[in-house]
Description:
InterPro entries: Aldolase_TIM, PRAI_dom, RibuloseP-bd_barrel, TrpF_fam
GO molecular function: isomerase activity
Strand order of the largest sheet: 1-2-3-4-5-6-7-8
Protein name: N-(5'-phosphoribosyl)anthranilate isomerase
Shape: globular
CATH topology: TIM Barrel
Number of domains: 1
Bound molecules: the ligand O=C(O)c1ccccc1N[C@@H]1O[C@H](COP(=O)(O)O)[C@@H](O)[C@H]1O
CATH superfamily: Aldolase class I
CATH class: Alpha Beta
Mean pLDDT: 93
Catalytic activity: N-(5-phospho-beta-D-ribosyl)anthranilate = 1-(2-carboxyphenylamino)-1-deoxy-D-ribulose 5-phosphate
Domain N-(5'phosphoribosyl) anthranilate isomerase (PRAI): 14-203
Amino acid sequence: MSDAMTEDDADVFIKICGLRTERDVEAAVAAGADAVGFVFAPGSPRTVDAATARRLAALVPAGVLTVGVFRGQSVEEVRRFAEESGVRGVQLHGEEGPEHYAALRAEGRTLLRATAERVRRCGEYGEDLLLLDAPDPGSGKPWNWGSADFTAPEGRWLLAGGLNPSNVHEALKATGAWGVDVSSGVESERGVKSPALIHAFAQAARGR
Ligand SMILES: O=C(O)c1ccccc1N[C@@H]1O[C@H](COP(=O)(O)O)[C@@H](O)[C@H]1O
């Protein structure tokens, strides 16, 4: 488990996802992100190769968790990307079952399970962190986290899906999420991160 995950629970955990350039990394780190994500799922405007992620991850301070983001990829592929890039966390967005998490557990990486399903508690699949996301991850579309019938899972979970500097504070208040994850909401155009929006997002998440 990463250092960032053992810090004071009162401080919201912030993950900035889909970084592709040095400027993105600098902006996320300067904003005080607890985790940064590199997308290895194919077909996204944010997809990077393992060598790019390795170069960028080397710029990230030790206390910030580096995460590889996958969708529907085999254990072997996840393992290969994780080893080649050196990320310390793995986030799975597909239909992966508990056996996937068990297979990856031995490598000592922080495991994030992303799902659009209703889940009762974090850890059911052996993950360290649960991520409740929209059905179409990375689309910037919100889901009904604010609805009256939403029940927050037990344990540490991150809220994702359509978050931005204008709605993140309200979303945290409404759901009680332990942390947040964002990609589209901190971009000036699809796939292009905005340092100003990253800063504004982190400030708003912390209620400043
Ligand atoms: O960002 C992507 O393109 C992506 C592709 C495949 C799987 C996950 C992806 N991103 C994850 O989506 C949410 C944030 O989405 P949003 O754009 O802020 O609505 C987050 O979990 C990212 O890690």
